[in-house]
Write a structure and sequence with these properties.
The chain is mainly alpha-helical. It contains 16 helices and no strands. Helix 4 packs parallel to helix 7.
Length: 315
């Protein structure tokens, strides 16, 4: 009979002998990284002033690597609960292709490397924001909040909301109201987005004993909170227009897709199929489309020259 020690040893060997490049790439949470990078580009392009193309690309690379480091460290710490959830069971660590120790080392090297490079080749303010983002995601969200409070997503969402501020600081070396408004939009968007997911993955969180809102407060309260945060997100989406750093394209996208976002959240609130949760599944996809679209509107307006700030890359 195979002992527990032998099983752990076999997993360690599997992790050291059979990990592939795709396994390590999966540790980076590439879908999350793409959203982080996209919102960071918006902050970088929106910022007034100019930086060399090499500096801009270095900043974006550091942000992407820092996001990947966060993903790897998160997977290393959460390996025990990932193995209990159908959504995460296929990740490299639960499958024994990479050990938690190897993922931790991989993540730490990327975290230190990305922050150091940002500080040396971009500027100290952007590096400090990147370091804070990584530390907040790992220490505050992953280690402290995730397993202790149903507000884990609300508070922890700050880490995923900060990339526009890092992009802005990469150009200006400082912070200002415009990037902080973009941060607020993502921060308010995060609960509705992830609680939609948690509605149709509630059994996963129950099995893993993660206190997501549907587990602790029930699905009815979760649906109510989703509507509230969807409305707050769309209202916040009009602030850039009111403050004059976004134009008609942004306003139209926020009104159109934001209206769809809110209507779908109301449909989630009225959902009666609590097994399949089709409306929540639909809202999850719509929420991603909404966020990509409003930040794409920032880029489009800058490229078309119809927003007040000039594009940054001119050298």
């Amino acid at each position: 009979m195979t002992t527990a020690v032998e099983k752990r040893h076999s997993v360690a060997l599997a992790g050291s002998e059979f990990a592939t490049i795709s396994d390590y790439f999966a540790l980076l949470k590439p879908r999350v990284m793409s959203l982080v990078l996209f919102t960071a580009v918006a902050g970088l392009v929106l910022a007034p002033g100019h930086v060399p193309m090499a500096t801009a690309l270095t900043a974006l690379l550091c942000i992407a690597v820092g996001a990947g480091a966060s993903g790897a460290l998160n997977m290393a710490y959460d390996a025990d609960i990932d193995s209990l959830m159908s959504r995460t069971l296929g990740r490299p660590i639960p499958q024994g292709r990479i050990t938690a120790g190897a993922a931790t080392g991989f993540g730490m090297v990327m975290a230190v490397g990305s922050v150091t490079t940002m500080g040396l080749l971009v500027n100290p303010v952007a590096a400090a924001l990147l370091a804070f983002t990584i530390a907040f995601y790992i220490l505050v969200y992953t280690v402290w909040l995730k397993r202790r409070t149903p507000q884990n997503i609300v508070i922890g969402g700050l880490a995923g909301a900060l990339p526009p501020a890092i992009g802005w600081a990469s150009v200006t070396g400082s912070l200002a109201v415009p990037p902080l408004v973009l941060v607020a939009i993502i921060f308010l968007w995060t609960p509705a987005h992830f609680w939609a997911l948690s509605l149709y993955r509630t059994s996963d969180y129950v099995r893993a004993r993660v206190p997501m809102l549907p587990v602790i407060a029930g699905k009815r309260e979760t649906r109510r909170q989703i509507v509230l945060y969807a409305i707050l997100t769309v209202v916040a989406g009009f602030v850039p227009v009111a403050l004059g750093f976004a134009g008609p394209v942004f306003a139209a996208v926020n009104a159109g897709l934001g209206g769809w976002f809110v209507v779908q959240s109301v449909l989630v609130a009225a959902e009666r199929d609590e097994v399949r949760e089709p409306q929540a599944r639909r809202l999850f996809g719509i929420s991603i489309l909404y966020l990509f679209a409003v930040f794409a509107a920032v880029l489009l307006e800058q490229a078309a020259g119809i927003a007040p700030f000039a594009p940054l890359i001119g050298q």
